[in-house]
Write the structure tokens for this entry.
Amino acid sequence: MDEHSAAFPSRPPAVEDEWSQTPLVPAETVAGRALAIVIAIMTFLAALTAGFAIVLADASRDWRGAVGVEMTIQVTPRAARDIDADSAKAASIAAAFPGVAEARAFTRQQSEELLAPWLGAGLDLSQLPTPRMIVVRRDPQKKLDEIGLRAALDAAVPNASLDDHGAWMQRLDTMAQVVVGAAVAIFVLVMIAMALAVGFATRGAMAGNREIIEALHFVGAADSFIARQFQFHFLRLGLRGGAAGGGAALLLFLLLGFLSRQWTTSAGGEQAEALFGSFSLGWSGIVAIAAISLTVALIAGLMSRIIVFRALGEFYDVKD
Amino acid sequence: MVRFENVGLRYGMGGEILRDITFDIAPRTFQFLTGPSGAGKTTLLRLILLALPPTRGLITLFGKDSAELDKPGLTALRRKVGVVFQDFRLLDHLTTYQNVALPLRVQERDEASYRSEVMELLGWVGLGERMHVYPPVLSGGEKQRAAIARALIMRPQLLLADEPTGNVDPSLARRLMRLFLELHKSGTSVVIATHDLALMDQFDGARRLVLGDGRLHIYD
Ligand SMILES: Nc1ncnc2c1ncn2[C@@H]1O[C@H](COP(=O)(O)OP(=O)(O)O)[C@@H](O)[C@H]1O
Ligand SMILES: [Mg+2]
């Protein structure tokens, strides 16, 4: 497999090497390092895109998971109504409703605590017309008839409103879809660019090895055999470039994961974590990047094969 | 096994280099293809090899119309024909042994299954000592013999040799000719293109296909 084993006249092979099957197309004549670097960079970009998409998709799933099981009922204060009574009533209606696991009304004191960071401590909320919150936790095993719950609340406590975070979830969904869609588009573009680069390199390699191809034809080689001689090199280049690019992307994600863990222990890190998750790719991400690297190598091999076949089809006359 | 009927050929827009060529090459025959330099000997061999499509006329090879051959058919045909090019066309990055074994290797046969066969043939053409040497190191005569060995390793039914004695001294030329005759006796049809009249005179009885002014004259 070592490309330098394609020994040249100036360098006689070692004795045990004498019978070894020298590649029919010398590795030196096939675009080597430059193409491997191009493939590595392309793989890196593709893996990076896929990695970020996976991290973001995971994070958005986490948000949705957290948000999706909770709803809130907001009881707004009205003149001539007892907000404590309304709040308790709404909570009991919700708690009794099928599909609800728990409904917990925030007491005045809890509401004050909730608002304290914004309004300052030691506040007497009874002076202010603050709404009361009831946190409703769904029972994930059962279906909840949201419209029914809304109607029941409306009938009993007209100043209560149910918020199921639907709009927020909708936006989150859209955003996740856009990000994943963009990632797929970038991935496809990068793969096309790489396939084109391999195609050009294959044409170059064939032009440079025209005499070898002719000789192979005349000794009775089928096109598929000739194609395989080229494919071998490009598959290997693809494997090498893909491994380098994918490996670099993995390292970067490991580093980012490490840094994000450092941040979370510091102030302000929680927001970042909330947004991006813990930045760990997880097994699915590692598998995805490995699959991308392998795909890259396969595309390189396949592309060179297609180009060789096409070029051999045009190849009838021989050079004089 | 080869049949030309009214074959004509021109390169690009030029005039016809070959005109109304009609001939047969029967199994187990030996013939010279001759004519002055530039008469079209190499061109005619390339037509037989289907390395070049004829401008007009019909070429039949092993009973098949050349115009109707597909790629696998062409490959199968080339495996029945051994060819020695004027410029050898050995692959410089392969050893003499690997060059001679190439027709077997492209059929994806296991190297161990043909090694002794190739070594025997190399011994027969006198290259036993040179099998691990690369072509650029070989002398003209050694390259010639390597090219011949490569053409013979598949035991072709038809051997085409283009000026096979053009690069060698007279005594080696005679040895190579004896080799071709031996091959002919063992059942192969042989076509030797040469403009060397002295060489042909040594094999007086052989059939001659003579090219001149684009036409072919046959002397049986
Ligand atoms: N590829 C080519 N393109 C154009 N003309 C060619 C080509 N090959 C050969 N010729 C011309 O065809 C004629 C016959 O050439 P060739 O078959 O090589 O003759 P020979 O082998 O008898 O010396 C020559 O005039 C040569 O210049
Ligand atoms: Mg010639």
In short: Chain B has a mean pLDDT of 92. The pocket of adenosine-5'-diphosphate (ligand 1) is lined by residues A 320; B 11, 17, 35, 37-43 (CB under 6 Å).
